[in-house]
Amino acid sequence: MERVARTVADRLMPNQCFVCGQEAGSALVCEACRADLPSLAAVCPVCAIPSGEDLVCGSCQRAQPAFDATVAALPYAFPVDRLVQALKYGRRLALTRFLSGLLEPFAPPQGSVVVVPMPLHPARLRERGFNQAAEIARPLARAWGLPFKADAVERVRDTVPQATLPWIERRRNMRGAFRCHGSFAGKTVVIVDDVMTTGSTLDELARTLKSHGAACVVNRVVARTPSPA
User: Fold this and answer.
1) Which residues contact 15 (CB under 8 A, 6 or more apart)?
2) Burial readout 57-68 (b: 16 or more C-beta within 10 A, e: otherwise)
3) Is the pLDDT of residue 160 over 60?
4) Does the residue 98 lie in any domain?
5) Global pTM value
6) Which whole number is the average pLDDT over 126-136?
7) Residues 58 and 166 in one domain
8) What's the gap between Cα 28 and its chain centre?
9) In 30-178, which residue ranges form alpha helices assigned H by DSSP?
């Protein structure tokens, strides 16, 4: 009955593809546009920067980040950038279903695992009205059958937006930005975020989690920028 109802609804009120505007049935992105999404290949397994080979990049070899691994679903390029921006700044919350689905195949390691979204500072949360990372992470944790810890970490410093700073200053900008509530002793923590640029924010969050006992911290991000900026 549910499948029949969904089929009838798709025919009577089909969605328009967010990318091309054509009918997409119950989907937000049509099959043709989804098949045409850009892909990531040959990336560093630690920071997911495109490197031309599946080896740890020189930057991670010189200075190992606090996180242990990163998987990005897509590069931050058209139309992925438009999808993320529409969610983040255009309040198109329906897109969380699609973006979360992109990460679902990249299951976390086995063991005692919890899912933690990248937190927003309360001032930014009040301004935006929602945390896009949490909206993506919640259905992802449910699909994986893992605990979702939205309030386990808070952002206690309302830092200058990373995009406004030179790369070399971004790590300094994030120092002391997070606070954990409780212990993560022996846990593998999956951090979920929308976009990874230099990785400084994820690095600081991973460092905070490990200072509270996390045995391993891995990132699952929707999109990765092609190079640090």
Assistant:
1) 23, 24, 25, 26, 27, 28
2) bebbeeeebbbb
3) no
4) yes
5) 0.87
6) 95
7) yes
8) 19
9) 31-35, 58-62, 80-88, 95-103, 122-128, 132-144, 167-174
Whether omega before 79 lies within 30 degrees of 0, making that bond cis, reads yes
Instruction: Provide the pLDDT for residue 169.
Output: 60
CA distance 211 to 178: 11
Tell me how far the alpha carbon of residue 51 is from its chain's centroid: 20
Cα 159–Cα 137–Cα 215 angle in degrees, nearest 5: 80
Question: From the CB of residue 76, how many other CB atoms can be counted at a distance below 10 Å?
Answer: 20
What is the separation, in whole angstroms, between the first and last Cα of the chain? 51
Domain with 117 in it: 38-224
Domain count, the chain: 2
Q: Quote the Cα angle for 121-90-87, to 5°.
A: 70
Q: Compute the distance between CA of residue 100 and CA of residue 212 in angstroms, rounded to an integer.
A: 27
d(CA 44, CA 138): 27
Tokens of 18: 């967010």
The whole-angstrom separation of Cα 116 and Cα 137 is 7
**Is there a single domain that holds both residue 71 and residue 135?**
yes
E strand or H helix that includes residue 10: helix 2-12
Residue 157 has pLDDT above 60, yes or no: yes
> Average pLDDT, stretch 201-217?
96
Nearest to 193 by CA among 181, 180, 202: 202
108, two tokens: 């976390």
3-state secondary structure of 124: helix
Question: Helix axis angle, 200-211 relative to 167-174, nearest 10°?
Answer: 30
